[in-house]
Write a structure and sequence with these properties.
40% of the residues lie in helices and 23% in strands. The protein is α/β, with parallel strands linked by helices and 252 residues long. The termini are far apart.
């Protein structure tokens, strides 16, 4: 008997007036998976994130998490159930220390400051920010702000962590460090759904890839299959460049 998915997105559609941002998107995520969500700019990836995490209420369709219909719940209600997301643009609390930033997340689970602090310190060790715990949020570099965004999300003790382009703008060394962190997070028993444009980073670490184009799901499968899927290649290159690429390959 197949295990119940941790997350089930069913027929999700999101409209903004006449703009169709997501159209009838359906996919499952199982416990312990790392799933990549990719697609060209404007494909609807972040809108989908917002619908799953409660920042937007989908026009139609449903989001089932751990067997419960959470469609339309508020972000804090969804966070309490175990889903948390990061954002493309990092938003540290500039006038608070790194430790206090993470405690803003751990207070979602712990009422006592002592317990919230203890959990935050554990998260800082996991994310490599332990040595910077007393620095102000305003003092961090871009890579460390991205780590802090992840750390604050981890402080809520999620079952499903949703990362929105956490590797954008990083150097190759920093990208490898981010990939190592993702693997370490999964080793803690946390499932991950990751929007990413850095293909050389997401392809080796993901178990499955879900591809959106113009708001529609056009492909889903193992990274090696997605990398050679004609629909995916065309979505990224455009039809004319895809035809030229196929013609060039046939002449080799």
């Amino acid at each position: 008997m197949e295990a119940q998915p941790l997350l089930r997105v069913q027929g999700l559609t999101m409209k903004f007036g006449g703009l169709l941002a997501n159209h009838d998107v359906s996919f499952d995520i199982h416990p312990g998976e790392i799933v990549g969500l990719i697609g060209p700019n404007g494909a609807g990836k972040t809108t989908l994130f917002s619908c799953v995490s409660g920042f937007l209420r989908p026009t139609s369709g449903s989001v089932i998490f751990n067997g419960e219909d959470i469609t339309g719940l508020k972000p804090y209600e969804i966070c309490q159930r175990g889903i948390v997301r990061t954002f493309q643009i990092t938003q540290p609390l500039y006038e608070m220390t790194v430790l206090e930033n993470v405690m803003a997340g751990t207070y979602c689970r712990f009422r006592r400051p002592k317990d919230a602090r203890s959990e935050a310190l554990s998260v800082l060790k996991l994310t490599g920010l332990w040595d910077k715990r007393d620095r102000m949020g305003s003092e961090l570099t871009i890579p460390d702000r991205k780590r802090l965004e992840i750390a604050r999300a981890l402080g809520t003790q999620p079952k499903l962590l949703m990362l929105d382009e956490t590797m954008a703008g990083l150097t190759p060394t920093e990208i490898q460090q981010a990939v190592d962190l993702i693997r370490n997070i999964r080793a803690q028993g946390i499932t991950l759904l990751i929007i990413e444009h850095v293909m050389e980073a997401i392809m080796p670490v993901a178990d499955r890839i879900v591809v959106l184009d113009a708001g529609r799901l056009i492909a889903e499968g193992a990274p090696k299959d997605i990398a050679h899927d004609p629909k995916v290649i065309e979505a990224y290159l455009g039809e004319k460049r895809y035809v030229r690429r196929k013609k060039h390959q046939s002449q080799l």
